[in-house]
Amino acid sequence: MRAIRVETSSATILLTEAPAPKVRDRQTGEIAKDAVSGEALMKVGVVYIDEGESSLIHVTVPESGVTDGLALGSPVSLPGLVARPWESVFNGQQRHGIAYRAAAVAPGAVPAGVGA
Predict the structure, then answer these.
(1) Facing residues of 96 across strands?
(2) Residue 80: which of 54, 55, 106 has the closest Cα?
(3) Model's pTM, two decimal places?
(4) How do residues 14-30 score in pLDDT, each as one tens digit?
(5) pLDDT tens-digit profile of 24-60?
(6) How far, in Å, are 46, 55, 86 from residue 50 at the CA level?
(7) Helix and strand element counts for the chain (H, E)
(8) CA angle (80 as vertex; 77, 81 as ends), nearest 5
(9) What CA–CA distance (Å, rounded) separates 60 from 40?
(10) Which of 65, 62, 17 is nearest to 41 (CA)?
């Protein structure tokens, strides 16, 4: 399915869950890897706030894209953020959702005019 770029310039994005390895298989504990580079993948939890609405989302980033200086509750930036719709059948049940992926997660700033 097609990836959709997410515009983040006017959004406030706050870190809610520290980066952790993304698990591919819960039974074996296998860590997810990028299909192209083979690099380990991490997931972070953020709250994405824009135009008075907020969403809690998990974002996948490559391990090399996790930068130092991240603190829970602080603003972060997610360069290259994309959303990709997905669907699958698991145990006979149809499931669907949106997967988010970014090139990196780095300390950020609250956009100008927010809270003013």
Answers:
(1) 87
(2) 106
(3) 0.86
(4) 999 999 999 998 889 89
(5) 988 898 999 998 999 999 999 999 999 999 999 999 9
(6) 13, 9, 23
(7) 0, 10
(8) 75
(9) 10
(10) 62
